[in-house]
Amino acid sequence: MPTPESQRCGVVDLGSNSVRLVVFEGRGRNPQAIFNEKAVLGLGRGLQTTGRLNEDAIGPALTVLARYHAVARAMHADPLEVVATAAVRDAENGPAFVAAMQERMPGLRIRILTGEEEGRLSADGVLLGFPGADGVLGDLGGGSLEVVRLTEGRVARAASLPIGAIRLAERAGGEVARARAITEEELAKQPWLAEGGGRDLYLVGGAWRALARMHIAQTGYPLAIVHHYVLRREEARDLAGVVMAASRRVLERMAGAPQKRLADMPFAAVTMRRLLRATGASRVVFSANGLREGWYARLLAESVRQDDPMLAAARELAAAWGRDPGLPPALIAWTDPVFPEQDAGIRALREAACWISDIGSHDHPEYRAEQAFLRVLRQHGAGLDHHARAFLGLCAALRYEAEPSAPFLGPTRVLLDLQTIRRAEALGAALRLAYTLCGGTPDLLAGTRLERTSGRLVLRLAEGTGVFAGESVLRRVEQLGAVLGLEALVEVEG
């Protein structure tokens, strides 16, 4: 897809524990990061006792920031902005550090966020992936925890609490039991957190993502993607309890444990468990989107932000890998009579499946099914939950004649229930028939139509349009009819 350099933008997230540069390309509904680099500096370590930024980290931080400035300029990222969070805004020497940045990098935009601004930016990032989010958002950094009440995709209220993973550990003197009491006290000051009862708790932040990766590794979950990873309330409580009680040596041996974050993990677990209690949430939903994506979201046109993220991701795949942009809309209309869904979510999945149905057209014929499946399962789309990835990937693989029992389709048998798999098999069979008829062109598809009546599936072909009822067509009609439990017929119209 054409993405001119003028459409690149960059943001430096200057946090209490790390500093990170992300360069985004384009202005699409799903953020496309083409550069992402992090340095763990511990700028906010010791802030709780000294009131100052870590003097040992200031020099390295300025060096790293100068590198990020050079990288972003070389990539023609515009706008480019540094957003500083809890450590810089709370430190006595924060203004002097900002002045040193400006002297070293003249013209660089630097913004020190308030706690509420930080929370609202994180919420904007989460809403890119969860547009109808309803519950409580928690964004855990090194210096602070931002909590936001989300009501059906809107920010209702926000607060910033001084219990980031580093600061909490310092306030508690490294004692987990004391950290629990401190966290409970801080959360009790926000009684509105209880409005999350029975809803979702959306978690953002590197330490919490590390907890999710540990759970993924320990359970053998088939998809190593934290974004949209979901834990039931009791699963999340159990995970937090294990990490809180573990010694450093035990943590080091745990599958998926982040070696650079081991000291912070018990305190990240404390905040997760206490936040679960304060909100009464029924599920924990992890988001890889946060403050940086929220910064990006504010550059988007409102019409783009309102677009469905799953359908936007599917259209992006079609633009990158498909052959004819006019075919997917034609396929949606062509399959309408066969799948008269009542549920809007199921219909959106069918539309997305039509959009991605030709993404293997440029791959080797022997590997089209597998490549298409993996391309969908592992793509970057912010709005694709794990269920949607598995369903759409399965539809694409079946459209390319994959055997349902193929080993590479193993993740679908874990992520999807039997009813959903059957629905994917029917849609895959319909798409396979469509491509057999039209060769990937909307013009030939226009000479055909499907009708579903009581107990019968009828394929009607217009004579003289380049389509005919050959052996392959007859076989595919019968396969579709069998999946749907219908008698299949072909009728040619003069």
From TrEMBL:
Domain Exopolyphosphatase C-terminal: from-to ranges: 311-486
Pfam families (alphabetical): Ppx-GppA (PF02541), Ppx_C (PF21697)
Domain of life: Bacteria
Gene Ontology molecular function, alphabetical: pyrophosphatase activity
Domain Ppx/GppA phosphatase N-terminal: start-end pairs: 23-300
Record protein name field: Exopolyphosphatase / guanosine-5'-triphosphate,3'-diphosphate pyrophosphatase
Phylogenetic placement of the source organism: Bacteria, Pseudomonadati, Pseudomonadota, Alphaproteobacteria, Acetobacterales
